[in-house]
Amino acid sequence: MRKILALAVLMTAFAASESFAQSGNASASVAVTVTAQVTVTNVRGLNFGTHVQDSTAATVSANNGGTNAAYFTLQTSASHVSTVTYSNTAMTYSTGTINWTSSVVGSSSAANQLSAATVGNNTTVTTNGSGYYYFWVGGTTDPITNTLPAGAYTGTFTLNVAY
Length: 163
Description:
This protein is mainly beta and about 160 residues long. The chain contains one helix and eleven strands, in the order αβββββββββββ. The chain has one domain (about 40-160): Immunoglobulin-like (Sandwich), CATH 2.60.40.
């Protein structure tokens, strides 16, 4: 009888504990920020001009190279921070190759080429309140010697911008 009584007490306690079960809940906000796509536009290319085979290098300043400097625009969301990387390939013609080193400057104002700051490879830039940033590219070639065939040499410069 004691076993039955103990079992009844235990079952009553278990049933009573279920009747006192508690629950709770909480809510969390859910958000997403949508930003504009990154658009990089090449407005004009870099032009070292005509150079004589005199063993000197051709140079175009990114800051004061005027229309000889390459010009790019970046458009995305306002005040957005993006990472900039770039690379260039040697200029070639026929059997000749001219290597060159790029220099890149940038500004959040299209009117600031002369005072634009150096933009190092793999660094960040911040767009202006309208979502724009501007880049100018200059550079210096290796010495142009009389061993290079005369002709129009071409290569590429690639500017990458990513979030």
